[in-house]
Write a structure and sequence with these properties.
Length: 331
């Protein structure tokens, strides 16, 4: 008889990734190794070594970005269950692969696991969905569960806190390594009980509030009739806060476009871009011109050379935001 295989769980360290695995391991509490990281750590399958008889669970990691390593593990004889909602390219056909992929903008990995498990840890699926910025979808599902406004708000607060804890360049930037946070979450079948008993959520909230206050106190670096730009120095707080600040600013002034720029020690700037909430189209196109990417209303640029800054500011000022595909104006 061959020895029993190992179980290895691999997930993004944001709320959606962690809550997907929490649901799974609460239902199947076999000893498993966890491999996770920060939000920016996407190519995690490269860190896995496994072979025949091993079972790998992958949640919330782009298959496209992990395809080569996925094939390596499958060819080595491991069996892989894969739950994800990022664009995948061609999904390999392999007897060892069971893929649960759904690219709907109203879907996330936690909800895919919820679907597979028949809602047996629904509250954790909701935490993941709230954390993945799917408040509307999560609210609708929570209402069907009969959760009142107070409970919905609590699950949302937890999801947003777990998610915020994944932002930074290294684990030194975040309050608690996502793998440690996972072990805490896993202990609670009821996330509301965790909120009552564990001070970590309050500490993440306080850190985020302080980060946001520090950023807002800087004031805009550039302010025009149609847009505002913030420029943050390179620091742990600014490495955490960029995306949250961009969302907050967009909500404050829904008629304006927003960009949050951050300087880095290496030189190139990092940018988070938000279209005006009232005309939330055009972000992906703008970011793509500078090597970035995104969706209609929210996007980013990983490395904007300082020499390109003026060109970016001009393009941002001139950008044609629109209310929808039909209304988009030609460039
Ligand atoms: Mn996700």
């Amino acid at each position: 008889m061959s020895p029993p295989g190992r179980r290895i769980d691999v997930c993004n360290g944001d709320a959606d990734g962690l809550c997907a695995v929490v649901q799974w391991r609460q239902i199947d509490p076999a000893p498993a190794e966890l491999i996770t990281g920060l939000k920016r750590d996407i190519e995690l399958l490269g860190r896995v070594s496994a072979g025949a008889g091993d079972e790998i669970l992958v949640c919330d990691l782009s298959m496209q970005r992990n395809l080569r390593e996925l094939l390596r593990l499958l060819d080595a004889g491991a069996s892989v269950r894969y739950f994800d909602h990022h664009a995948a390219g061609d999904v390999p056909r392999h007897p060892g692969l069971q893929a649960h992929l759904d690219f709907s903008p109203r879907m996330c990995s936690s909800l895919l696991v919820d679907r597979f498990l028949g809602g047996r840890r629904r509250a954790w699926a909701l935490v993941g969905a709230y954390g993945d910025n799917l408040a509307e979808v999560a609210d609708a599902l929570a209402l069907r569960e009969g959760l009142d406004a107070g409970r919905r708000a609590a699950l949302r607060r937890l999801g947003e806190a777990v998610n915020y804890n994944a932002y930074g360049d290294s684990e030194a930037d975040v309050l608690i390594p996502p793998a440690d946070l996972y072990r805490l979450l896993l202990r609670y079948e009821d996330p509301l009980l965790l909120l009552e008993r564990e001070p970590v959520v309050g500490r993440i909230d306080a850190l985020r509030d302080a980060d946001l206050r520090q950023a807002l106190a800087l004031g805009p670096w550039r302010e025009g009739a149609r847009s505002r730009i913030w420029r943050l120095p390179d620091a742990a707080w600014s490495r955490r806060v960029g995306g949250s600040l961009a969302n907050l600013l967009a909500g404050q002034r829904p008629a304006l476009a927003h960009a949050v720029l951050r300087d880095t020690a290496a030189g190139p700037l990092v940018a988070s871009v938000r279209a005006p909430l009232r005309a939330p189209w055009g972000t992906h196109e703008l970011c793509a011109r500078f090597g970035g990417a995104g969706r209609a209303g929210a996007g980013g640029i990983d490395a904007l050379p300082p020499g390109e800054l003026k060109r970016f500011v001009d393009a941002f000022d001139a950008a044609q935001w629109s209310r929808g595909r039909r209304g988009r104006q030609p460039r």
